[in-house]
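Case study 2.
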Amino acid sequence: MRMPESESQVQVGPPSVPATPRTPWTVAAFHRYRDGYAVAGFVNGVGWFVIVIGLCVLTFAGLIILAAMAGLSSKDSAAAIVSALGVPLAIAMAIWGGIFAVVGLAIRCLAQLTLATLDTAMHTSPFLDNEDRAAAMGLRAGQ
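Prediction:
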């Protein structure tokens, strides 16, 4: 399949440098790596989201524990009962919040491994030049 002229010829470098012809393999490699970086960025975002959920659950568990401690020092029997029920709930929430935070960190680690793998693959790709690599990574001139 032949690439349309608009995609097969791309201007690279300053305007004085003639356009470097792009083969279909170069265009396909560029799109593959660009998509790979987009997926790795999405996975990284999911990891951050899971970490934030875990930290919110941990914070809420801490607030429940503080309220339960205040209830234990109270002379009211109803507050003592609520405190007795709140402590196990807070401990369970703290465990689940910690699990979420660790899982979110693991998800982010997988995203970073994916980025490192893509960086290595792009570095060794014979189909891409430095400008193509920078564009696929989402880098702009001067960054």
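The radius of gyration is 26 Å.
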